[in-house]
Recover the amino acids of this structure.
């Protein structure tokens, strides 16, 4: 870029008249030795006069004509002095056209361009935001290196402008300045960092674009803004969405663990022996053992899903590639429907989408199989679309649909578009190799095509048949004979070469024909194509080795012809073959092996998709389309082995967050400190809750107030509307707040256009913003859905609220969240939820107005990954069993606790029929067993879930774990913490529940 | 992102160029012309071309090529989608997207391009915002401007740009408040020789023309929303509401726009409303063949089928055709070998047919395959999917805020003269026929009275 602009400026720096010949930009020279010279000059004089007149209309006319010249690519640079005078014109249209002119020619006339700078500097201070913005745009677009400091200053100022529109333009200016002068990088990164914190959706797309261009490797700048970006995403304009989604895809690949890993718990045994109490173990365990998705990872996947419905194909494709690259394999399926929808748009979109589908369909057939028929070729499709569709159809072929497909292919073969017909034959060949059931059918079909009238079809069939025969050479003597006959008629070199090769390979199976073919070929040797000549030589050599009596002379004749051929490849091959096969004194040890060399068993060719190797490019990118790395392509990194610290994304004060991340004992000692640090928090939380209670406060007011108390939290709260309402912590209040703010928003929007950027995020009329809110408060079954920081906040506030009156609750809460399995002496009564969790989720989804008595089950914030030994491998004769509590609602019954049991086979033989035998349960306890496992491979492991109703007691559930041969007595004793169901309820409800006998 | 844009007409003239960064020489288009030559057919020019220093991404619209120059990695769909948006904007401003229109309005085109992209990144693409910044040309306005000296260019930032509904401009006023919805459904079907459907699917769009004052908040519901398999929305539609209630709720842009497009799953069998009897044969060793097609209505639900056009791409060996239509007129282009038959309306009493002789190149082998037929037709007031609109409700926020609650205003549906939909139908002689239909369907006219 910069070198480019440099080159251009150099060119134009010289005298125009002399260098016009090379002047890249102009097609018609205003001066020169042609007759045009005088008239052009006159015309320009005319324009100059108009520009200098007093009347705006004349000036406007002149400018319009000049813009017309620019548009046609004519050179209008000599008018520069006359035009630049008008930069300060009052007439806005003249001004705009002068801007257009300036941007085009300033680079060539740097000195004169400087005259206009002061005008822009003035305009940058204008009260009209449109004028400020366009001044910045032009200032940053004139590529004059001298003004870099002025631009830098202007960008810095504009990035703090009150108008988000101006800030958006500032983000664009960053990229321009960077391409003009890369040395400003450090300063620009500072501005980017500042703008990334911006809460306006208008700015988000542009600043991420600047980020991608200037410092795509500074992933650390994103951490703090990650959640904000995810939440804003739906509201960002479509172009910004594309850029942000691509950036977040890369981000996710560096920050989260792979959701694709299969569970493997084999090494756990050893690990349990040492460092069991260590935190580190928690971490490695997390990666190895049970994968739980980072809530932030889930947030991104969830928030991008609605965008699949976008009208903009680029957005849909961006979401599709995000799902493909970062979501769990089981969730990728939802993108196929939307991608198929895109096939209805214009051919360019189809082309790109089909390419991407082709790549996907290689790896995951199942995704597009239901849409097989959507890829049927229409006669009106352009050839490039047809071939892509054919490619996909071939990828999707399997035993079930092959017959339908082949019937469809039959029609394609007859297409008038011969290029496409040839591609179809290739496709049939690929199907035949991939699906062994139809190989013979395909082969027969292809043989029929050999009698086709069209030569291209025949030639293609020959080539494909050759490949197919190579895979199963034994039984096809007839086909080879048939093909040998074709040699007389067919003229296409590839086909002829293929037939010759085939005969050579199978010369022992067609002993009579082969020498005859060689004879015919020898006759016409000189007139053949090089490709065919090489194969004739090969055929001769092979026959010489197998049937030298008949063909010795013929081969020597051919070798002589080859010796004097014009093509050096052929001469070379001739010399090589002669040395190898014709015995003479000099020939070394190799000639003994000549037969082995020529008639070795050759591996059958793999007929592969041309899209096979594209998958290492990120889908939807230019590089993927071109299948080469485009300039500026950013590699998608592999998933990290160990997740980087997720707390970097927390927008709250770090020390607080730390307390909650590491599991275990640390917490027990901490309560005093915690209360400490909270006292300062209390103010602003009361602020926010009182604000959301009072329905009069405008959204922006609320945010300002919060911003006063702590800067960090203000960013957080305004970008994530739900954090305000969540901080109220009680469901009832939350609902009320929501209702209030809803009606409040309504009024805002009705009041007209007094919006500032803040109400942008919280306006109800763009349901999307409220949707963010709703979705996050949904207690959906995905436990990860709540972003961590918020839930932390929730629990913290809960404690705060209750600490004065009731201590038990504090304990209760911490029990839920800690990985603490010491049985606690005080059994806590379990409040029964009024509704089942799913019903509540439904209710919340519908956003019903609320009654405060609803108790909602909150999703677990933290699921311990600690496993307990159920059966040790020593005592289990090689069968080891571990269990842990996933803290999910049990699917077997409301009262049951769900337990996941992982069974490992550490022996070297199969363990068969693993099941649960006799149960010794205390009275009232119930257990739902897993289905018997037929067999477990050596080194294999399997996870099953079991539900046990412990009757709210810590009594031990004993039962027998049986295999085919043995029975082992095992028992599970639940820690109290696992028996509790986390619920969120209002303080009032809590007291009520507590007051109950 | 987008470095430069070149507009090229069919004969290969570059008639407009615009650069957003440093100037890129026109000679970069040579690579494009090279590819165009190789492709033979305009349709087959690859959308993405790689050159030594640049990448060219192009679209073909209305006989024009929009060629953009790219220097670094960018999602190709991003550029393609944007270029189409540019073409749409031209269409919107000048009524057509043609070379003549663009040349006539080159200044406005330039101003538009300047607003739509900044440094190659889209800045404002919503037509409502653009129209506030740059007024579309009308004869009246140009007269007024020349007298008063006012200009086409707005001097304040459109409010929509900053609001959360960038697609709608502020202060819209109409004396007659009207909203039109045009449901157009297309059947895309492949039909085999015997007439049975190999594959059919329905694609529908709802285009709207909204002329309502203020900030109307509309909700639109369907008779049978479950039928809609996959939907894509204009950004104005509230996604949550659709998810939960299957109601389209939105504050519309002012003017024409596409509200949704949808697909109806192909499981439901689609009744194809026409059939074609065909008999096309070429005699071996002679230089002529017979051509005979007849079109008839089928399951048309009492509606007339009109605007029928048949296009046939004849094989290359065909020299000329001597045909007699019972109805309408036909043309045969000996260069492109395209036969076009403009049929008009079907009257069940007398089915239209086209019969005659085909002259072939003498000596050439007879064509192996019979050509495929492409048939287009229109049926008015018929939504083939069975998912037409059922009701529209409007909330006027002005009224609502006064009363303190929202109130739904009286609304009524009057099916009015529908805009003729078109249908495409294509079929081929030998084992497969391709049919493409585009059904037009109902138009609803709605009158709204806004109480204030």
């Amino acid at each position: 870029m910069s070198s480019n602009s440099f080159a251009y400026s150099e060119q134009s720096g010289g005298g125009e008249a002399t260098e016009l010949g090379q002047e890249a930009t102009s097609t018609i020279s205003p001066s020169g030795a042609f007759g045009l010279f005088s008239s052009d000059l006159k015309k320009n004089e005319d324009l100059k006069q108009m520009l200098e007149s007093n009347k705006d209309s004349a000036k406007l006319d002149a400018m319009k004509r000049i813009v017309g010249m620019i548009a046609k690519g004519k050179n209008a640079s000599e008018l520069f002095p006359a035009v630049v005078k008008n930069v300060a014109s009052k007439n806005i249209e003249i001004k705009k056209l002068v801007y257009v002119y300036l941007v085009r020619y300033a680079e060539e006339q740097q000195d004169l361009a400087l005259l206009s700078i002061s005008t822009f500097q003035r305009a940058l201070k204008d009260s009209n935001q449109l004028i400020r913005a366009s001044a910045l745009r032009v200032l940053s677009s004139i590529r004059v290196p001298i003004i870099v400091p002025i631009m830098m200053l202007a960008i810095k100022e504009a990035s703090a402008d009150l108008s988000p529109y101006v800030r958006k333009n500032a983000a664009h200016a960053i990229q321009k300045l960077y391409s003009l002068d890369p040395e400003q990088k450090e300063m620009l990164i500072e501005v980017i960092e500042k703008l990334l914190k911006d809460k306006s959706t208008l700015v988000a797309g542009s600043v991420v674009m600047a980020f991608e261009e200037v410092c795509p490797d500074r992933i650390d700048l994103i951490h703090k803004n990650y959640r904000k970006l995810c939440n804003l995403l739906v509201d960002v304009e479509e172009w910004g969405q594309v850029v942000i989604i691509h950036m977040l895809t890369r981000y996710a690949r560096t920050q989260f663990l792979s959701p694709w890993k299969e569970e493997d718990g084999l090494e756990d045994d050893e690990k349990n022996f040492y460092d069991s109490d260590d935190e580190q173990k928690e971490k490695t365990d997390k990666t190895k053992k049970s994968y739980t998705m980072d809530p932030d990872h889930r947030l991104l996947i969830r928030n991008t899903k609605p965008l699949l419905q976008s009208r903009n194909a680029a957005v849909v494709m961006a979401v599709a590639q995000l799902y493909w690259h970062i979501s769990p394999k089981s969730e990728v399926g939802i993108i196929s429907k939307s991608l198929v929808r895109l096939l209805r748009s214009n051919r360019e979109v189809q082309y790109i989408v089909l390419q991407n589908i082709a790549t996907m369909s290689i790896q995951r057939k199942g995704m597009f199989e239901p849409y097989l028929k959507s890829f049927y070729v229409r006669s009106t499709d352009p050839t490039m679309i047809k071939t892509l569709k054919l490619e996909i159809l071939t990828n999707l072929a399997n035993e079930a649909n092959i017959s339908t497909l082949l019937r469809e292919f039959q029609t394609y073969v007859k297409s008038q578009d011969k290029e496409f017909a040839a591609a179809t034959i290739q496709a049939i060949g690929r199907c035949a190799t991939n699906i062994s059931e139809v190989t013979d059918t395909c082969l027969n079909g292809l043989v029929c095509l050999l009698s086709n009238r069209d030569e291209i079809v025949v030639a293609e069939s020959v080539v494909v048949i050759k490949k197919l025969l190579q895979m199963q050479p034994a039984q096809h003597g007839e086909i080879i004979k048939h093909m040998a006959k074709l040699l007389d008629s067919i003229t296409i070199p590839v086909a002829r070469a293929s037939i010759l090769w085939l005969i050579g390979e199978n010369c022992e199976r067609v002993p009579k024909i082969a020498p005859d073919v060689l004879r015919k070929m020898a006759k016409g040797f000189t007139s053949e194509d090089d490709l065919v000549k090489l194969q004739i030589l090969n055929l001769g050599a092979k026959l010489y080795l197998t049937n030298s009596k008949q063909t010795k002379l013929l081969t020597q004749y051919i070798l002589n012809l080859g010796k004097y051929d014009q093509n050096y490849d052929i001469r070379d091959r001739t010399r090589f073959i002669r040395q190898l096969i014709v015995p003479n004194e000099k020939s070394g040890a190799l000639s003994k092996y000549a037969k082995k060399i020529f008639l070795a068993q050759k591996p059958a060719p793999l007929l592969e998709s041309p899209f096979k190797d594209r998958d290492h490019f990120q889908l939807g990118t230019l590089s993927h389309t071109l299948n080469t790395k485009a300039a500026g392509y950013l590699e998608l990194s592999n998933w990290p082995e160990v997740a980087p610290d997720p707390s970097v994304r927390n927008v709250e004060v770090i020390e607080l967050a730390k307390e909650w991340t590491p599991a275990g004992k640390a917490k027990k000692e901490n309560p005093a400190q915690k209360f400490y640090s909270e006292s300062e928090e209390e103010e602003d939380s009361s602020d926010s809750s009182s604000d959301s209670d009072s329905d009069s406060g405008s959204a922006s007011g609320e945010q300002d107030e919060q911003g006063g108390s702590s800067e960090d939290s203000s960013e957080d709260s305004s970008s994530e509307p739900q954090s305000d309402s969540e901080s109220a912590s009680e469901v009832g209040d939350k609902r009320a707040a929501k209702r209030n703010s809803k009606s409040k928003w309504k009024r805002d929007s009705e009041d007209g256009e007094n919006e500032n950027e803040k109400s942008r995020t919280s306006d109800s009329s763009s349901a999307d913003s409220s949707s963010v809110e709703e979705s996050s408060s949904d207690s959906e079954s995905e436990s990860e859905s709540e972003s961590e920081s918020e839930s932390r906040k929730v629990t913290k506030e809960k404690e705060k609220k209750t600490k004065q009156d009731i201590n038990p609750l504090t304990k209760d809460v911490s029990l839920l969240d800690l990985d603490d399995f010491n049985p606690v002496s005080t059994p806590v009564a379990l409040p029964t939820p009024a509704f089942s969790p799913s019903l509540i989720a439904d209710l919340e989804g519908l956003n019903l107005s609320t009654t405060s008595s609803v108790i909602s089950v909150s999703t677990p914030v933290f699921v311990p990954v600690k496993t307990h030994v159920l059966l040790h491998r020593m005592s289990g004769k090689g069968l080891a069993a571990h269990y842990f509590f996933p803290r999910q609602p049990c699917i077997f019954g409301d009262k049951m606790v769900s337990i996941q049991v992982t069974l490992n086979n550490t022996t070297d033989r199969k363990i068969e029929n693993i099941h649960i035998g006799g149960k010794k349960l205390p009275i009232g306890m119930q257990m739902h067993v897993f289905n018997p496992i037929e067999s477990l491979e050596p080194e294999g492991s399997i996870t099953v879930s079991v539900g046990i109703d412990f009757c709210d007691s810590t009594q031990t559930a004993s039962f027998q774990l049986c295999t085919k041969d043995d029975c082992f007595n095992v028992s599970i004793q639940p820690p109290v913490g696992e028996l509790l169901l986390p619920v969120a309820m209002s303080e009032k409800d809590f007291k009520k529940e507590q007051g109950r006998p | 992102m987008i470095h430069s844009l070149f507009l090229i007409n069919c004969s290969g003239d570059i008639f407009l160029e615009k650069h957003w960064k440093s100037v890129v020489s026109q000679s970069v288009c040579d690579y494009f012309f090279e590819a165009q030559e190789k492709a033979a057919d305009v349709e087959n020019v690859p959308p993405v071309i790689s050159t030594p220093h640049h990448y060219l991404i192009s679209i073909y619209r209305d006989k024009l090529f929009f060629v953009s120059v790219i220097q670094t990695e960018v999602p190709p769909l991003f550029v393609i989608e944007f270029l189409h948006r540019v073409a749409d904007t031209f269409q919107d401003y000048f009524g057509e997207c043609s070379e003549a229109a663009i040349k006539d309005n080159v200044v406005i085109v330039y101003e538009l391009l300047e607003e739509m992209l900044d440094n190659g990144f889209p800045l404002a693409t919503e037509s409502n915002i653009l129209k506030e910044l740059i007024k579309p040309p009308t004869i009246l306005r140009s007269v007024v401007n020349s007298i008063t000296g006012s200009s086409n260019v707005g001097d304040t930032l459109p409010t929509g740009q900053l609001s959360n509904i960038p697609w709608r401009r502020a202060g819209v006023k109409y004396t007659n408040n009207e909203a039109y919805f045009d449901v157009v459904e297309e059947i895309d079907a492949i039909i085999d020789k015997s007439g049975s459907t190999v594959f059919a699917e329905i694609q529908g769009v709802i285009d709207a023309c909204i002329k309502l004052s203020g900030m109307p908040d509309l909700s639109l519901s369907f008779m049978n929303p479950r039928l809609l398999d996959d939907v894509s929305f204009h950004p104005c539609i509230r996604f949550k509401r659709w998810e939960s209630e299957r109601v389209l709720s939105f504050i519309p842009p002012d003017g024409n726009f596409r509200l949704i497009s949808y697909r109806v799953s192909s499981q439901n069998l689609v009744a194809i409303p026409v059939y074609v009897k065909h008999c096309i044969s070429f005699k071996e060793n002679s230089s002529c063949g017979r051509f005979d097609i007849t079109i008839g209505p089928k399951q048309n639900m009492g509606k007339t089928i009109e605007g029928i056009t048949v296009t046939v791409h004849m094989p290359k060996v065909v020299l000329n055709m001597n045909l007699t239509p019972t109805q309408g007129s036909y043309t045969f282009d000996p260069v492109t070998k395209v036969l076009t038959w403009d049929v008009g309306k079907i009257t069940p009493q007398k089915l239209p047919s086209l019969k005659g002789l085909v002259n072939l190149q003498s000596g050439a082998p007879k064509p192996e395959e019979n050509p495929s037929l492409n048939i287009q037709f229109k049926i008015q007031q018929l939504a083939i999917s069975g998912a037409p609109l059922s009701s529209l409700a409007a909330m006027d926020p002005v009224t609502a805020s006064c009363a303190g609650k929202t109130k739904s205003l009286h609304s009524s549906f009057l099916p009015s003269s529908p805009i003729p939909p078109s249908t495409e139908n294509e079929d081929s002689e030998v084992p497969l026929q391709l049919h493409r239909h585009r059904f037009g369907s109902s138009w609803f006219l709605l009158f709204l009275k806004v109480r204030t």
Notes: Residues 87 and 96 of chain A are 9 Å apart (CA to CA). The longest helix of chain A spans residues 671-693. DSSP finds 49 helices and eleven strands in chain A. Chain A touches chain B through 130 residues (CB under 8 Å).
